[in-house]
Amino acid sequence: RIAMLLWRGETEAEAGFKSGLQELGYQTTFEIHDAAQDLSKLGAILRSINNNLIVYDYVYTFGTTVSRRAKVVIGGKLPQIFNIVTDPVGAGIVDSLDSPGPTIGGGSDRIGITRQLDEVGQMLTFKKLGFFFNPREKNSLITRDELHRYGKEKGFEVVDFPSPPVDRVLQRNLQMLSDSPDLVDAVYLAPDSYLSSEGALIGTKLREAKIVSITQIRSLIEHGVLIGIAGDYHELGRAVASIVDRHQQGMVFEKIPVAHFTNLKLLMNKSSADLLGLELDGSLPANAELVD
């Protein structure tokens, strides 16, 4: 029996986790708890689970926000399986990527800024890169620090657009770019849950502004963001299911490394490229995928 603590409903990662366990032969009862991006609701869910630990074998936690808080409340009392955490070490969720801890294991969706922008930078150039992120998410702050360091190294300026889920800040920031597209040469979108949930708005407004945009989130590229290196979230979910299997077979979590994406590929939204007048097809790697 697994309690699944989610932040924005079920995603491809959870679908992969469930199917992975089924394929491994487990008959699992999943108890779904969706915090719906509400910290007070998350707190109530965690208190409820903490009061009924005996009925669960594992708690599955989605994302950095949920996983950090779950470790504080439940840590050590129930095996925790996290997923879609960009930097589990930096967020204080695991001791190390190779040896997570005595009662915790899981998967990271980290794709380093260097890997992302080195490859994309071969096709696109910019001197000012706007960075959209939710400052309430620890993983976004970690990405911000990494991006600013990378910008200094490569000689471009990073312009922050902090966009928390309050007071239509994201909408205002996007409108600012629509009104003044010369503010930046391109936009990078952090891999955070809030931005992922606003894909339709982000894709529409960036297309209106005709601004080059980059992300690792496949759903944002499908909604209109131009380009990025992305991983397969369904496959990552399956990899996390295999961690549960190894633990069930008697392996301790300290000996089960954090799972990562294994098959990264460059994605490009063809309609957005056409709208921007970019002819990038000839410079795309062989395994690139066009989405529309």
CATH H-level superfamily title of the largest domain: Response regulator
Please tell me what the overall shape is: globular
Ends apart, CA distance between termini: 39 Å
The SSE order reads EHEHEHEEHEHEHEHHEHEHEHE
Biggest sheet, in brief? 5 strands, parallel
Outline the low-pLDDT stretches.
none
CATH architecture of the largest domain: 3-Layer(aba) Sandwich
Write a short abstract of this structure:
By secondary structure, this protein is of the alpha/beta class. It is 40% helix and 18% strand.
Please provide a written account of the structure:
The protein is of the alpha/beta class. The protein folds into 2 domains: 2-109 and 233-255, Rossmann fold (3-Layer(aba) Sandwich), CATH 3.40.50; 113-230 and 265-291, 3-Layer(aba) Sandwich (Rossmann fold). It contains 11 helices and 12 strands. It has helices at residues 12-23, 39-50, 63-74, 113-120, 138-154, 169-179, 193-197, 199-209, 218-223, 233-248, 270-275, and strands at 2-6, 30-34, 58-62, 80-83, 104-106, 128-133, 157-162, 186-189, 212-215, 227-230, 265-269, 289-291. The strands form 3 sheets. A 5-stranded parallel β-sheet has the order 2-1-3-4-5. A 4-stranded parallel β-sheet has the order 7-6-8-9. Strands 10-11-12 form a 3-stranded mixed β-sheet. Strand 6 (128-133), helix 5 and strand 7 (157-162) form a beta-alpha-beta unit. Helix 1 (12-23) packs across helix 10 (233-248), helix 2 (39-50) runs parallel beside helix 3 (63-74) and helix 6 (169-179) packs parallel to helix 8. The radius of gyration is 19 Å and the shape is globular. 46% of the residues are buried. The model has no long low-confidence stretch (mean pLDDT 95).
